[in-house]
């Protein structure tokens, strides 16, 4: 309560804006995840790896737009690409452009895909991948995993999602990181079109899929003629070729999004040529795939610049090695406390758990110390760190190591202060 009171005193302008916002947005919010009680801090601007609030506080940004903000808020090459595109090319042109072929070609070679299609978001990429898999296999059912998140209307805490491209009865939910359950549900259910899985569950936050689990899925899917669809919307940043490169996986289809649009709304899905051909409009029976902004010029140009000139495979390797170093430091200070650190590379999950267990294989293993986590979030804000309330860090390129060490120091201070 004291932390909440301090928060209110520190952010009077945000409170004022929030009171206006609730008049036209439910709860004053258009992205549920970003809601924070008692009200959200309103961000005014971002520069590099920092954001500044309407109340004039500057924070080191660890939200990193849930991994989409990899390039930060003012990467010069991306800014030039955007301004140049606005000035010389124009916005959506209502026609095919060479920008999309250029970006597609680069993504295909980096992620070892034959053909891809663009969408507006990762959610759409997953919906289309499933639809494509159903068409290609002529089967109906889709296996997903508890704790999975594949988009706004499309998550699997315990239950089945809102109606979308799969009938309610055709979702089969298996336990994440349970090799035997995955094998059984994929191999014994019958009529499986696709198995859709994240190599690391973002919602966990950051529950890492084991090598055995992910390879079992690949093997079982192959065995029954179902498509193995790897959701790399978050994990594609973990190396030059994504998590599949790190784990030696060969999915039939891969879905991606986030930073690959250079900070502009983006998604894509793709994989083996014979599967993606179901979308080839030269074939009269092709599956339709549309979306007004699928080839928007800004995303195509900024994404291509980002991937070709900024986030090269070498940069990806070094950046994720830095993330691994940070995670280890956090793990060290968490020993013997209720704080548990999960994640890979530049995506890190911070948990406060009643039993302080240090390994999480499923979101079901998580007994949250809710009050401690809330308090942590308030105190990190006071120390100048912008972090999602659920405790996921998505690092931004160019964040100085000193800032990461400062975070470790502040987290350590928090743990001592509250005898966590
Ligand atoms: N899949 C995963 C693994 C995600 O983390 C997300 C978003 O966080 C999505 C899909 C949905 O992407 P978008 O928010 O672009 O629709």
TrEMBL record:
Cofactor(s) annotated in UniProt = pyridoxal 5'-phosphate
List GO molecular-function terms, semicolon-separated: pyridoxal phosphate binding; transaminase activity
Q: Respond yes or no to whether keyword Oxidoreductase is given for this record.
A: no
The alphabetical list of record keywords is:
Pyridoxal phosphate, Transferase
Q: Which residues cross the membrane?
A: none
Instruction: State the superkingdom.
Output: Eukaryota
Keyword Lyase assigned: no
Under the heading Pfam families, the entry gives:
Aminotran_3
State the family it belongs to. Answer: Belongs to the class-III pyridoxal-phosphate-dependent aminotransferase family.
Q: What is the protein name given in its UniProt record?
A: PLP-dependent transferase
């Amino acid at each position: 309560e004291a932390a909440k009171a301090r928060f209110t005193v520190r952010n009077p302008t945000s409170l004022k804006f929030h009171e206006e916002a609730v008049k036209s947005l439910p709860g004053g919010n258009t992205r549920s995840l970003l809601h924070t009680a008692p009200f959200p801090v309103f961000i005014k601007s971002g520069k590099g790896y920092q954001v500044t609030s309407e109340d004039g506080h500057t924070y080191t940004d660890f939200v990193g737009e849930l991994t989409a903000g990899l390039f930060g808020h003012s990467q010069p090459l991306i800014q030039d690409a955007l301004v140049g595109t606005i000035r010389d090319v124009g916005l959506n042109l209502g026609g095919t452009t060479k920008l999309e072929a250029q970006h597609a070609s680069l993504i295909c070679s980096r992620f070892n895909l034959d053909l891809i299609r663009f969408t507006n978001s990762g959610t759409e990429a997953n919906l289309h991948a499933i639809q494509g898999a159903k068409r290609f296999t002529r089967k109906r059912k889709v296996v997903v995993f508890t704790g999975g998140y594949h988009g706004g209307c499309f998550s699997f805490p315990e239950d089945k999602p809102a109606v979308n491209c799969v009938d309610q009865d055709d979702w089969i939910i298996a336990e994440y990181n349970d090799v035997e359950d995955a094998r059984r549900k994929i191999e014994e259910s019958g009529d499986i079109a696709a198995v859709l899985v994240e190599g690391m569950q973002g919602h966990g936050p950051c529950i890492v899929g084991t090598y055995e689990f992910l390879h079992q899925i690949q093997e079982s899917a192959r065995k029954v003629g179902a498509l193995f669809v790897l959701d790399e919307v978050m994990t594609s940043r973990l190396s030059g070729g994504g998590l599949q490169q790190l784990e030696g996986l060969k999915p039939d289809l891969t879905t991606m999004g986030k930073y690959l649009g250079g900070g502009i709304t983006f998604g894509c899905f793709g994989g083996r040529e014979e599967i993606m051909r179901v979308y080839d409009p030269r074939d009269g029976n092709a599956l339709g795939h549309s979306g007004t902004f699928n080839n928007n010029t800004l995303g195509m140009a900024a994404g291509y610049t980002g991937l070709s000139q900024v986030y090269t495979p070498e940069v990806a390797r070094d950046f994720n090695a830095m993330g691994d170093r940070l995670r280890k430091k956090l793990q060290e200070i968490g020993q013997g406390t209720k704080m548990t650190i999960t994640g890979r590379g530049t995506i890190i999950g911070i948990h406060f758990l009643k039993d302080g267990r240090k390994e999480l294989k499923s979101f079901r293993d998580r007994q949250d110390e809710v009050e401690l986590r809330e308090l942590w979030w308030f105190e990190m804000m006071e120390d100048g760190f912008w972090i999602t309330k659920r405790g996921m860090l998505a690092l931004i390129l160019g964040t100085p190591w000193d800032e990461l060490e400062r975070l470790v120091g502040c987290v350590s201070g928090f743990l001592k202060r509250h005898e966590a």
